[in-house]
Amino acid sequence: MRNTATCRSAIILGCTGSIGITAIKGLSALSSPLRIRALSAHTQAQKLIDSAVSLGAEAVCLTGARFSDFPVHCPADVRRYDGPHGLRSMLEDIHADVVLNGIAGADGLAASRWTLENGMDLALANKETIVMAGSLIENTARRNSCSIFPVDSEHSALKALIDAHGRERVSSLVITASGGPFRTIPMEKLYDITPEQATAHPTWSMGRKISVDSATLANKGLELIEAARLFSFDSSCLEIVIHPQSIVHSMIRMVDGAVYAQLSPPDMSLPILSALAGGVLPGQGVKALDFTHISLEFEKADEKRFPFLALARSCIKGNDALPIVFNAANEVAVHAFLARTCRFPDIYATVEEALARGNWSQYIEDYEDVMQVDASARRIAQDILSEKHV
């Protein structure tokens, strides 16, 4: 890992999303300065330019559009890049100690790959990177002597706990889930859920897609897969427990029976800034907990209500193609739900059928294989949804 005692530099991808916004707001908490060299956004050109000017970034990339499509003024000393190819060029041209990948969905995989291929550490908020191509990404990191710092609050906590106590002493990992907004709703009412209800998360402020994933617990399914690959644990050694307060982010069970937990407010500042700082946060990350004003509850995750959990476990036990299908079909189904062309329970049904319908026995040898499976899964998911409306 690189020397973190000197001034570190960073690139923030997805700077107008919830991860990017939290990162930028939290920079003042770092006692050691962090130089922001470049930023990207999908389509919010003006916000991207404004952030670049305020942070002194030397380059920007608009990944989902072209700057010429918007009436914005960009200072002459800020280099501009457009589209996915532009993002790759920016990561080749601009070097930083660490890249925060806050790009949402499968689109973030390429950015993670390019980051590591260009010799930069990866602060990874894009869980799809590990779900879709865990072994490939880890090999790319090793070849280029780079580190990967997980940014999900659960995996950031797990890494800190495992590093502190030693992998050989840990028997299992416990990942918490808030349970989302429908933890107690009668099962028969799930068909009546609207996109507005599904995106109103009770404890976290997130984007629409990930909010729906948190309501179905597909998000926790993805996190199970990510944890299995990041920390090399079998699915039988991974637990999900419902914890509505979102204060305990993860726990580890030790071989001697002891349990250690990481607690902090439901705020992404701590894992984001820790990852940007190289794993150890120099400064105040979040406000300290006041235990006289909090109550912690835990309950078993109901896999009948949240079937994505069992489905994710089956993907972990299967071959490397299955998690790719899980993620791709879920993205297609969630977008259909948000567009009001399928019902809430249809999200799971679509993913389950996509996994059962396709021939997913192929061996994943390279990134091209990953994208081929991803494209096939998306076509099958679209066909499934279309058939439901014939």
TrEMBL record:
**Boundaries of each DXP reductoisomerase C-terminal domain copy?**
263-379
Q: Name one GO molecular function term.
A: 1-deoxy-D-xylulose-5-phosphate reductoisomerase activity
Any idea which positions bind NADPH?
A: T16, G17, S18, I19, N126, E128, G207
Sorted alphabetically, which Gene3D superfamilies does this protein's record hold?
Answer: 1.10.1740.10, NAD(P)-binding Rossmann-like Domain
Catalytic activity, as annotated:
2-C-methyl-D-erythritol 4-phosphate + NADP(+) = 1-deoxy-D-xylulose 5-phosphate + NADPH + H(+)
Record's keyword annotation contains Nucleotide-binding: no
Specify the protein name.
1-deoxy-D-xylulose 5-phosphate reductoisomerase
Residues recorded as binding 1-deoxy-D-xylulose 5-phosphate, renumbered to this chain, are K127, S153, E154, S178, H201, S214, N219, K220, E223
**Enzyme class, UniProt record, top EC level:** oxidoreductase
